[in-house]
Design brief:
The complex is a heterodimer of chains A (584) and B (593). With 584 residues, chain A is α/β, with parallel strands linked by helices. Chain A has helices at 2-11, 15-48, 54-101, 104-109, 112-154, 156-163, 166-203, 205-210, 214-267, 272-314, 320-324, 374-381, 404-409, 425-429, 438-447, 451-456, 474-487, 504-517, 530-533, 553-559, 562-571; strands spanning 336-344, 349-358, 363-367, 389-394, 397-398, 411-414, 492-496, 522-526, 538-543, 546-551. Chain A folds into two domains: 2-314, ABC transporter type 1, transmembrane domain (ABC transporter transmembrane region fold), CATH 1.20.1560.10; 318-410 and 535-584, P-loop containing nucleotide triphosphate hydrolases (Rossmann fold), CATH 3.40.50.300. Chain A has a six-stranded mixed beta sheet with strand order 6-7-8-3-9-10, with helices on both faces. The relative contact order of chain A is 0.08. In chain B, helix 3 runs antiparallel to helix 6, helix 3 packs parallel to helix 12 (288-330) and helix 20 packs across helix 21. Chain B is 62% helix and 10% strand. Chain B has 593 residues and is α/β, with parallel strands linked by helices. Chain B folds into three domains: 18-330, ABC transporter transmembrane region fold; 338-426 and 509-514 and 539-593, 3-Layer(aba) Sandwich (Rossmann fold), CATH 3.40.50; 427-505, P-loop containing nucleotide triphosphate hydrolases (Rossmann fold). In chain B, a hairpin with an 8-residue loop joins strand 1 (351-358) and strand 2.
Chain lengths: 584, 593
C-alpha cells in the first residue's frame, strides 16, 4: 500500500486527466452492457415476439454504441498511456536529479548495473502499472459492479446465487498475490545482478581479451543468466498453482447460472428472455474474475519495482544540503586552509592531522607513496567527501558553508582516473563550460599542449572519442582533461597526476604555460616526478595520511629525508656532463 | 571508425525480413515436442471451452422448454467437467510456456553474450557501452512475451478458429460464410498500418537505446560531472533524451492501439449481418436457439482473431528489438582464428616484427614500417612522445588489432596462423587503464590465472609491492572493490593490475605504463623484485619516467609510428640523438632552473 501511495504522489499531478480517463472507462463499461441488452431484446422482441421492425433499430444501436465505445476506449487508453509516460518521465527526472546529487561514497559502494536496473527494468514495471493495470483494475471492477447491479434489477435471487462463488475467487486471488510477491522481488534483484555482470564485462572488455578469459566470463554470465531464468520460472510456479483454479472458478459462475436459472425458468419464476440476458451478461462477471489473478500479479510486480526506485529516490547524501544553500558572492580568491583535518572512508584513517595554507598565486605540490592520501586530500577540497573532523576553508569560509556548486565552480580539476564522454573532443573540452566558443576551446587545448595532436586527427575537434576516451593514448586523454579544466579558468586548479602519461618534453612545455597563467590561481599538483613539483611554492610530502615534510624544493633537499631520497632516486645517478652542449 | 554517441540513433544496417522470425524459430525448435504437446492440451481445453455455448443452446432449446430438470443437471455436470479439464490444461500450459519462453530467452542471451566476447576492441570503442548493454539485457527481455505466450497462443488460436468455424458450419453454412465477410476488411487494415507501426517501433527502440546510453554514461562519468558542476546542463540533455523516448513511445502506442477498435467494429458489423440474415431465415431451417448459439460463436470467433492480430502487433514490436539483437550476433569479429589455425605451443618468448604497417582508421598510418627482433628473455623499453604508437605496438603483439601489412611472429610463428586465445593466454598484459572488477582484491588478482591458489596470489602481490597496502585494509585480500570505487588509489589499482599480469606467469610480459601513478620509492622496490621475476621472460615496458627503464636490454625510441633509435641506454646516450635529448630534458630544468 505504501508503494501505491508513493506512486500516487506522481500520478496526482494528472488527477484531472486520470478522473476523466476513469469516467470514460466507466462510460465504456456501461456501454458494454448495451450490446448484451440489445441481444436480449433481439431474442425476446424480434425472434420470439416477431417485431421484425425493431431489427434495424436494434442493429443501428448496436453498431452505434460499438463505434462510440471503441473510440472512447481508444481515447482513454491513449490518455492513460500519456499519464503513465508523464509519470515515469517525472520519476526518471527525479531519479536522474538524485543521481547527480549523490556523493562519491554512494558511487563507491553501488554497482552501475544496479542503478541501470532501476532506471530501466523497474521503470518499465511502473510504466506498465500506470498505463495498464490501473485502468484494467478499474475497468474490470466497474464492469463487474455494473453486471451485478443489472442482474439484481432483473432478478435478485438468481444474481445472488451466481455471486455466491465470488468470495472463493477472492480468497484465491489474495493467496496468489501474497505468494507471488517475493518471487518478483527476487526476479528484479536477479535482473540487477544480470545487468551488473554484463555491464562490467562490456566495460572491462580489454582486460577480458588481454587475459583471454572469454570462457570464464561466459561461465560467470551463464550462472547469473540461468539464475534469472530460474527466478522467472519460480514466479511461473505460483501462477501455475493459482491461475487455473481462478479460471475454472470463473467458469463455475456460468454453470450456476444455467443450472439455477434453468430451474427457475422451469418453475416459472424467470422468463426465457431474462435467462438469455443473464447469459449474455455472464462474461461481465467471468472476465473480471479471471483477470483478478493477473491483475494481482501485476500489482505485486509493480510493488517490487516501486520499492527499489523509491529507495534510490530516498537515498541521501550529506552534500545535498550544500546544493540548496544559496550564496550571494562567488569565490574569487582561492585561499585554501586545512586545519587539523582527519578523514576516513570507513576503514582506517586515510588523512590524519593535515594542516596547511595556500594563497592565490601559490602552487602546492603534493608528493608521496601510492595510497598515502594525496587524492583524498584534493577530493575533500572539492567536498566530494566530508571530513571526519577538522575544517577546510576555501576563500576564507568552511567548505560546508558554501553552496556546493559555487564551491566546485571555483575549481578546475583533472582527476587521476581520466573520464572522457563519448562525445566530440570539442564537447569534452567544453564539458564544464557549455557556452564556450570553438576559439575558447582551441585556446585551452593549446595551453594544454593538445591542439597539435587534435589538429592532426582527420576530423579535428569534431572527432568523437569513445567512452572513457578509447582510441586516444593515455597522454592524449590527460591533455584533453587538462584543457577541460583550464577552459573553466578556475580560481583553484587541481591536477591529480595529470602528466604521468605525458612525455617529459611536453610536460615541460605544459608547466611553462601553467606558470604563466597561475598568477592569480591557487594550484595543486599531485605528482610522482620531482620535475612536476619542484617549482611549487609549497611541497607537501605525504605518507600514511600524514604530512611528513613541508617546504620548498630547496628546503626539502636540505632536510635529507623522504623527498631527498626520491630526488636521489630520480636524479642521483645523473651525469651532468651529458647535457653539456644542450644547456644554453 | 565512425563512432556513435548517445544522442545519435544507430542506423540499422539490415532491412527487416521474415528471416529474423525464422531465426527466432530456430531457438524454439528444440521445444517442438513440448509445443506440440501444449498445443494438444490447448486444443482439448478450447474444445472443452467451446462446449459451453453449445450446452447453453441445448439447455435453452431443449431441456428448459421441456422442463427436463434432470437433463439440465446433467448438462451442468458436463459443463463442470469441461471446466476442470480446462483448468488442468491451463496449469500445464503455464508450466510449459514459461519453461520454453525463459529457456529460449536464456539461450538467446547466452548466444549474444558469447558472441560479444568474440568482438574486438573496435566494436566496443565505436559506440556507447550503454547501447550494448541494453541489447543484451533489455531487448532480449522484451522478446519474452512473444515467445512464451505469443507463439502458443497463435497456434491454439488458429486451432480454436478452425474449431469455431466447424461449429458454425454445423449450424449453418450460409451464415458461416457471411460471418467470414469481415476477414478481407481486417486484412486491409492490418496491411495499411503495418509500415507506420514498424517505423514507430524502430524509432522507439532507438530512443530507448539513446536514453540508456546517456544514463549509463552519466553514472560512469558522475565524478567529472560533479567536479565541473555540469548538473544543470546534463539535466537539460537528459530531459531532451527522456522526452524523445516519451514522444516515440506515444507515437508507437497510438498506432499499436488502433488494431483493437478495428477488430471490434468489424465484428459488430458481422454480427449485425448475421442477425439480419438469421432472422429472415428463422423458420426456414434455423431455430432461435441455433441463431443465439451462432451469434455466441461469432463473438468467440473474433476473440482468437483479435489475438492473432495482437500477435502480429507483438511481432512488429519485437522485430524492432529482434533485428538489433541479430544485427549484433551478425557483427563479424574482426579478430578471428584464421581457417586452420592451430594452438600456439608453449613459447620461449621470441618476438619479431617485419615491416609492420598499421592504422586504426583506414587511411591512418599509426605504425609505419616497424621492424625488430626480440630474443627470449630480453626486456625492451619503448619510449617516445605521447601518441607516437607505443601502446599500438604492444597491442599488436597480443593481436588486439590486425595489421595492414607486414608480419608479426612469435617464436617464428606468424601470430595470424594460431588461435587467438592460445596466443593471448601466454601474455601477461598490464593495460594503461587499470580495470578493476567488482569483487574482492583476491578475485581481481586471480583473474590472471583462475586456478592460482591464495598463496600464489599473495606471492604475486608481494612481488609488485602491493601486499603491504592490501593487508592494511580492514578486510585485507577480501576487501570488496569495484569499477569506480575510490577505495583504491590509481597507483594501487595499477599494482593490483600488475600483480594480475604477473600471476598469469607469462612468457611475454607487457607493461604499459604500469607504474605511472606509483611513487618512485615503491617503484624502485618493485624493480628490485622484478629483476628476478623478469628473468626468463620477454618483457615490453612503456614508461615516461626514464629512471624506470635504464636497465632494459634495449630501448626503442618511437616517433610518428617509426622506430627512430634503438639500443641500450648507454649506446643511445652516446648517439646524442632523440633519446639523449629526451633523457637530458628531464634534468635540464634542474640545472638551468
Amino acid at each position: 500500500m505504501h508503494s501505491l501511495r508513493w506512486a500516487w504522489s506522481y500520478i496526482r499531478h494528472y488527477k484531472g486527466k486520470l478522473i476523466i480517463g476513469l469516467l470514460l472507462a466507466l462510460a465504456v463499461s456501461a456501454l458494454n452492457m448495451v450490446n448484451p441488452y440489445l441481444a436480449g431484446r433481439m431474442v425476446d422482441d424480434v425472434m420470439y415476439g416477431e417485431k421484425t421492425g425493431m431489427l434495424w433499430t436494434l442493429i443501428a444501436f448496436m453498431i452505434g454504441t460499438t463505434v462510440v465505445r471503441t473510440s472512447v476506449r481508444y481515447g482513454y487508453q491513449i490518455m492513460f498511456e500519456k499519464i503513465s509516460q508523464n509519470v515515469i518521465f517525472r520519476m526518471r527526472e527525479n531519479l536522474y536529479d538524485r543521481l547527480l546529487q549523490l556523493d562519491f561514497a554512494f558511487y563507491d559502494r553501488t554497482k552501475t548495473g544496479d542503478i541501470m536496473a532501476r532506471m530501466t527494468g523497474d521503470m518499465e514495471a511502473i510504466r506498465h502499472f500506470t498505463a495498464w493495470t490501473i485502468y484494467m483494475i478499474f475497468e474490470n471492477a466497474t464492469i463487474f459492479i455494473f453486471a451485478i447491479v443489472f442482474m439484481f434489477t432483473i432478478h435478485p435471487p438468481l444474481a445472488l446465487a451466481i455471486l455466491s462463488i465470488a468470495p472463493v475467487i477472492a480468497f484465491f486471488a489474495f493467496r496468489l498475490s501474497s505468494d507471488v510477491k517475493p518471487t518478483f522481488t527476487e526476479i528484479r534483484n536477479q535482473f540487477a545482478k544480470l545487468n551488473s555482470i554484463v555491464q562490467e564485462n562490456i566495460s572491462g572488455n580489454r582486460v577480458v581479451k588481454a587475459f583471454a578469459k572469454e570462457s570464464y566470463e561466459i561461465e560467470k554470465f551463464s550462472a547469473e543468466n540461468e539464475a534469472f531464468r530460474d527466478r522467472n520460472l519460480q514466479s511461473a510456479k505460483v501462477w501455475e498453482k493459482y491461475l487455473p483454479v481462478l479460471d475454472s472458478l470463473a467458469g463455475v459462475l456460468t454453470v450456476v447460472m444455467i443450472l439455477v436459472g434453468g430451474m427457475m425458468v422451469i418453475t416459472g419464476s424467470l422468463t426465457m428472455g431474462e435467462l438469455v440476458i443473464f447469459n449474455s451478461l455472464i462474461w461481465a462477471l467471468n472476465n473480471p474474475m479471471r483477470m483478478a489473478g493477473w491483475l494481482m500479479n501485476d500489482l505485486q510486480r509493480f510493488i517490487a519495482s516501486a520499492e527499489k526506485v523509491e529507495e534510490l529516490l530516498l537515498t541521501k547524501s550529506p552534500m545535498m544540503n550544500g546544493i540548496k544553500r544559496s550564496d550571494i558572492q562567488d569565490i574569487t580568491a582561492g585561499t585554501v586552509e586545512f586545519e587539523r583535518v582527519y578523514f576516513s572512508y570507513g576503514d582506517g584513517m586515510v588523512l590524519e592531522d593535515v594542516t596547511f595554507e595556500a594563497n592565490p598565486g601559490q602552487t602546492v605540490g603534493i608528493i608521496g607513496p601510492t595510497g598515502s592520501g594525496k587524492s583524498t586530500l584534493v577530493n575533500l577540497l572539492s567536498r566530494f567527501y566530508d571530513t571526519t573532523s577538522g575544517t577546510i576553508k576555501v576563500g576564507g569560509r568552511n567548505v560546508k558553508e558554501w553552496n556546493i556548486h559555487q564551491l566546485r565552480s571555483s575549481m578546475g580539476m583533472v582527476m587521476q582516473d581520466i573520464f572522457l564522454f563519448s562525445d566530440t573532443i570539442e564537447g569534452n573540452i567544453a564539458y564544464g563550460s557549455p557556452n564556450a566558443t570553438l576559439e575558447d576551446v582551441q585556446a585551452a587545448a593549446k595551453k594544454a599542449e593538445a591542439h597539435d595532436f587534435i589538429s592532426t586527427l582527420p576530423e579535428g575537434y569534431d572527432t568523437i572519442v569513445g567512452e572513457r576516451g578509447v582510441g586516444l593514448s593515455g597522454g592524449q586523454k590527460q591533455r584533453i582533461a587538462l584543457a577541460r579544466a583550464l577552459l573553466k579558468d578556475p580560481s583553484i586548479l587541481i591536477l591529480d597526476d595529470t602528466t604521468s602519461s605525458v612525455d617529459i618534453e611536453t610536460e615541460e612545455r605544459i608547466q611553462n604555460t601553467l606558470q604563466s597563467i597561475q598568477q592569480s590561481k591557487t594550484c595543486f599538483i599531485i605528482a610522482h616526478r620531482i620535475s612536476s613539483v619542484k617549482e611549487a611554492d609549497l611541497i607537501l610530502v605525504m605518507n600514511n595520511g600524514k604530512i611528513i615534510e613541508k617546504g620548498t624544493h630547496d628546503e626539502l633537499l636540505l632536510n635529507k629525508d623522504y623527498y631527498y631520497h626520491v630526488f636521489q632516486n630520480q636524479y642521483g645517478n645523473f651525469d651532468v656532463h651529458l647535457i653539456a652542449g644542450k644547456v644554453r | 571508425m565512425a563512432r556513435n554517441k548517445f544522442n545519435v540513433d544507430e542506423e540499422l544496417e539490415t532491412p527487416f525480413s521474415m528471416v529474423h522470425l525464422k531465426r527466432l524459430l530456430v531457438y524454439v525448435k528444440p521445444y517442438k515436442r513440448t509445443i506440440l504437446f501444449t498445443v494438444l492440451l490447448m486444443i482439448i481445453a478450447s474444445g472443452a471451452n467451446l462446449i459451453g455455448p453449445y450446452l447453453i443452446k441445448q439447455a435453452i432449446d431443449e431441456e428448459i422448454p421441456s422442463k427436463d430438470s434432470t437433463g439440465l443437471v446433467i448438462l451442468a455436470g458436463i459443463y463442470l467437467g469441461a471446466l476442470i479439464i480446462t483448468g488442468i490444461c491451463m496449469k500445464y500450459r503455464i508450466r510449459m510456456m514459461s519453461q520454453i519462453g525463459h529457456n529460449v530467452i536464456k539461450q538467446i542471451r547466452k548466444d549474444l553474450f558469447t558472441h560479444l566476447q568474440k568482438l574486438s576492441f573496435s566494436f566496443f570503442d565505436s559506440r556507447p557501452h550503454g547501447k550494448i548493454l541494453v541489447r543484451v539485457v533489455n531487448y532480449v527481455n522484451s522478446l519474452s512475451d512473444l515467445l512464451s505466450n505469443g507463439l502458443i497462443n497463435l497456434i491454439t488460436d488458429l486451432f480454436s478458429l478452425l474449431v469455431i468455424i466447424g461449429f458454425m458450419l454445423a449450424i449453418d453454412v450460409k451464415l458461416t460464410l457471411a460471418a467470414m465477410a469481415g476477414f478481407p476488411i481486417l486484412a486491409a487494415i492490418i496491411f495499411l498500418i503495418k509500415n507506420a507501426q514498424r517505423k514507430a517501433w524502430q524509432n522507439l527502440s532507438n530512443k530507448q537505446s539513446n536514453l540508456n546510453a546517456y544514463i549509463h554514461e552519466s553514472i560512469n562519468g558522475i565524478k567529472v560531472t560533479q567536479a565541473f558542476v555540469r548538473e544543470e546542463e546534463n539535466k537539460k540533455i537528459f530531459h531532451g533524451v527522456s522526452n524523445g523516448y516519451r514522444g516515440s513511445w506515444l507515437q508507437a502506442i497510438k498506432v499499436h492501439f488502433l488494431l483493437w477498435p478495428a477488430i471490434e467494429n468489424i465484428s459488430v458489423l458481422t454480427v449485425s449481418l448475421i442477425y439480419v440474415m438469421g432472422i429472415s431465415m428463422i423458420g426456414s431451417g434455423i431455430t432461435v436457439g441455433s441463431l443465439v448459439a451462432f451469434v455466441g460463436y461469432i463473438w468467440m470467433f473474433w476473440t482468437p482473431l483479435a489475438n492473432i492480430g495482437n500477435f502480429y502487433n507483438a511481432i512488429i514490436n519485437a522485430s524492432a528489438y529482434l533485428e538489433r539483437i541479430f544485427e549484433m550476433m551478425d557483427e563479424k569479429p574482426t579478430i578471428m582464428n584464421e581457417p586452420g589455425a592451430t594452438d600456439l605451443e608453449t613459447i620461449k618468448g621470441k618476438v619479431e616484427f617485419s615491416n609492420v604497417v598499421f592504422g586504426y582508421e583506414e587511411n591512418d598510418r599509426n605504425l609505419d614500417g616497424i621492424n625488430f627482433q626480440v630474443n627470449p628473455g630480453e626486456s625492451i623499453a619503448i619510449v617516445g612522445p605521447t601518441g607516437s604508437g607505443k601502446t599500438t605496438i604492444v597491442n599488436l603483439i597480443s593481436r588486439f588489432y590486425d595489421i595492414n601489412s607486414g608480419q608479426i611472429k612469435i617464436d617464428d610463428v606468424d601470430i595470424k596462423t594460431v588461435s587467438v586465445p592460445s596466443l593471448r593466454k601466454q601474455m601477461g598484459v598490464m593495460l594503461q587503464d587499470p580495470f578493476i572488477f567488482s569483487g574482492t582484491i583476491m578475485d581481481n588478482i586471480r583473474y590472471g590465472r583462475l586456478e592460482a591458489t591464495d598463496d600464489e596470489v599473495v606471492e604475486a602481490a608481494k612481488a609488485v609491492q602491493a601486499h603491504d597496502f592490501i593487508t592494511q585494509l580492514n578486510d585485507g585480500y577480501n576487501t570488496e572493490v569495484n569499477e569506480r570505487g575510490t577505495k583504491l588509489s590509481n597507483g594501487q589499482r595499477q599494482l593490483i593490475s600488475f600483480a594480475r599480469a604477473l600471476l598469469a606467469d607469462p612468457k611475454i610480459l607487457i607493461l604499459d605504463e604500469a607504474t605511472s601513478s606509483i611513487d618512485t620509492e615503491t617503484e624502485l622496490a618493485l624493480q628490485k623484485g622484478l629483476e628476478a621475476l623478469l628473468s626468463g621472460r620477454t618483457s615490453f615496458i612503456i614508461a615516461h619516467r626514464l629512471s624506470t627503464i635504464q636497465n632494459a636490454s634495449r630501448i626503442f625510441f618511437i616517433e610518428k609510428g617509426k622506430i627512430r633509435e634503438e639500443g641500450t641506454h648507454e649506446e643511445l646516450i652516446q648517439q646524442r640523438g632523440l633519446y639523449w635529448s629526451l633523457y637530458t630534458s628531464q634534468y635540464s630544468s634542474l640545472v638551468v632552473g
